Amino acid sequence: MRKWKSAVFAACAIMTTMSSPAFAGSWIENFDSFDTKRWNDRDGSNGPFFGCKFRTSKTNINNGKMEIGIGDNGPSNDKNQCGEVSTKGTFGYGKFLITMTPSYIKGSNSAFFLYTGDTGGAANHYEIDMEFIVENGKRKLHTNYFIKGSDNNSANVKRFDTGNGPFQVGFEWKADSIRWFYVNGAGKEVNYRTANVKISQKMNLFVNHWYANNSDTNSTGFLGSYDGTEGKAIFDKIEVYF
Q1: Domain for residue 236, yes or no?
Q2: Cα angle 226-118-154, degrees, rounded to a multiple of 5
Q3: 44-53, 96-105, 110-119, 171-180, range with the lowest pLDDT
Q4: Which one, of 87, 81, 118, 114, lies nearest residue 209 by Cα?
């Protein structure tokens, strides 16, 4: 997520197998190292909705996993820190999956999403989101999409506790729809939401871990208040089939 609140539509209990995706090509990231030819490691801020600044020091590769930390224990002139990476290349239609362990920190957001980038203003703001937040001590998955800077949510909010990670979630982006899903213990996709929407703009792939600005009511209304805990979200693998 890059801006403002998101919510989710009702889930659909439809299952399909995960084996042998019917796609022409693939893009796999195992995080054996941080590939600077593939990834940008962000250093900057997103404004008052975010309670922290993105710093490269919060992104680390450890035993074949990418860890993105958060905390307010930075130096006195730069205390509130979090992390974000994004691909240097862009993607079009395909299936995007991530194996991850989101954080359990109250007020935090562990996210996997496509985004057109900050150039071009609202008219060029397109986005497809999967975001994990913590509510009552449990992780909840939210989905969202943006078209020309407009946040497209439903008045009906559907959330579920994903339990302990790591686990796999993803979305499939087609010319006329977006389908969000998680992968259950039997290796089958369980649909969470489908939106019949047309988005054709190519986007960069992002992964981040950040927390609410406790002084911004829009931010805390979405994430709750950040409790100051230092911690990390862990990302094992990303798969893209196109």
Answers
A1: yes
A2: 60
A3: 110-119
A4: 81
Structural domain of 125: 15-241
Quote the number of domains for the chain.
1
Whether 193 is covered by a domain: the verdict is yes
pLDDT digits over 113-164, tens only? Answer: 999 987 777 788 899 999 999 877 788 888 899 998 887 765 344 566 666 7
- Write the burial class of residue 36 (CB in 10 Å: 0-12 exposed, 13-18 middle, 19+ buried): exposed
Distance between CA atoms of residues 63 and 226, nearest Å: 28
Q: What is the largest CA-CA distance in the chain?
A: 52
At residue 134, what is the residue type?
A: V
Task: Give CA–CA dist 40/36, Å, rounded.
Answer: 7
Segment 156-211, tens digit of pLDDT = 445 666 667 798 999 999 999 999 998 988 999 999 889 999 999 999 999 999 99
Q: Domain holding 143: CATH number?
A: 2.60.120.200
Please tell me the pTM assigned to this model: 0.87
Domain membership flag for residue 2: no
For 80, how many CA atoms within 13 A lie in the half-sphere containing its CB? 17
Domain assignment present for residue 1? The answer is no
CB 81 within 8 A of CB 74: yes
CB proximity list for 143: less than 8 A, separation 6 or greater: 6, 8, 9, 129, 130, 131, 171, 180, 192, 193
Q: Which of 207, 68, 51, 222 is nearest to 135 (CA)?
A: 222
Q: Which two tokens stand for residue 191?
A: 């649909």
